[in-house]
Amino acid sequence: MIPFNYHHLYYFYVIAKEGSISKACEELHLAQPTLSAQLKQFEKSLKQTLFERDKKKLVLTEEGRRVFDYAKQIFGLGEEMKRTVDHGLPKARESIHIGMVSGMAHLFTKSIIHHILKGYPKAHVRITEDTMESLLKKMEELSVDIILSESALYPGESEECSTKHIGKIPIVFAASKALAKKYKGDIEEHQEIPIIIPASPSQVYSQVRDLLASGKVKARIVAEVQDVEVAKLLALEKYGIAPVNEFYLSASIPHRDLVRVDWIFPDPIYENLYLTTRTRKWPNPLATYLLDTFHY
Predict the structure, then answer these.
(1) How far, in Å, CA of 102 to CA of 149, rounded?
(2) Which H or E run contains 274?
């Protein structure tokens, strides 16, 4: 016996996902009175109130959140089933959609594509850059298979996701040859060394700010930029000294005019890398391949 109307469950799922009945109506192509009536019938069948109204917005109740969690699993599994039926067995699928958190070095993109194509020469790789929050939502919707980031998920942040640490890269300070020559020597002789730092939130941002707060170096922050490529270009143009990962500095041809100036901040700092995946009935084989073999 079917315990309830699955159409009603789906309508509830879309309303909860969209945050309002009006937006859900647009996606479902239903009139608002019709959808409101369907929601009321679903609540009546469960004998629970699933939403509360807060300033004309719908907010899930505790029971509503519980039902929504089940609905995500039910329809997520249904989406996987549809893709499997359409494209054959998961083993035959050689495509992957990788989410990369905005602001990370593009050299990581090159490395991860190279690694996949080395193991799967006929694979199709798609890269999307976005915020971690947005990428997690896309992974929940099964449009992203795996996420590369510089931060791990906090315990309980997403019960259906797991994070694996894949590398720890030393961060070095780099400057144009002219700027490095200008500030070479006893750092106490120099006043307000120009520094370019990554924007918050960032592992490197926090570590650099801690170093500056120690008072060992008098520095003037020239710019805070999210895009590491922009930071390196500013360093090349002699605007300041920028923290860059050691791997990037040694492998990136366009930035060979940058030189290390580690004597400014002798204390080591690092950038950690993580891969985040979502538990699935049929894991993407390329995502599994990355988890098992990709590391820095």
Answers:
(1) 9
(2) strand 269-278
Q: What is the biggest distance separating any 2 CA atoms in the chain, rounded to whole angstroms?
A: 82
Q: Which DSSP category does 90 fall into?
A: G
38 pLDDT higher than 70: yes
Class of domain 90-166+273-293: alpha beta
What percentage of the chain's residues is helix, strand, coil (to nearest 5)? Answer: 45, 25, 30
Q: What is the CATH number of domain 169-272?
A: 3.40.190.10
For the question of whether the overall pTM of this predicted structure is more than 0.85, the answer is no
Specify whether the CB–CB gap between 273 and 169 falls below 8 A.
yes
- Spatial CB neighbours of 247, under 8 Å, sequence gap ≥ 6: 107, 169, 296
Handedness of CA 29, 33, 36, 41 (dihedral sign): negative
Structure tokens of 264? 């400014």
Residues 42-99 have pLDDT tens digits of 999 889 899 988 777 788 888 888 898 888 888 887 877 777 677 655 444 588 999 9
One fold for 6-85 and 90-166+273-293: no
Domain ranges of the chain: 6-85, 90-166+273-293, 169-272
Measuring CA to CA, which residue among 286, 288, 255, 284 is closest to residue 118? 286
pLDDT of residue 110 exceeding 90, the answer is: no
Topology given in CATH for the domain delimited by 6-85: Arc Repressor Mutant, subunit A (1.10.10)
Question: How big is the CA angle at 188 (ends 184 and 194), to the nearest 5 degrees?
Answer: 65
State the angle between helix axes of 6-18 and 32-46 in degrees (0 to 180), rounded to the nearest 10. 110
Does residue 245 carry a pLDDT above 70?
A: yes
3-class secondary structure, 137: helix
CA gyration radius for the chain?
25
| 252 SS3 class | coil
CA 46/CA 66 separation, integer angstroms: 12
- Reply yes or no on whether the pLDDT at 139 is more than 80: yes
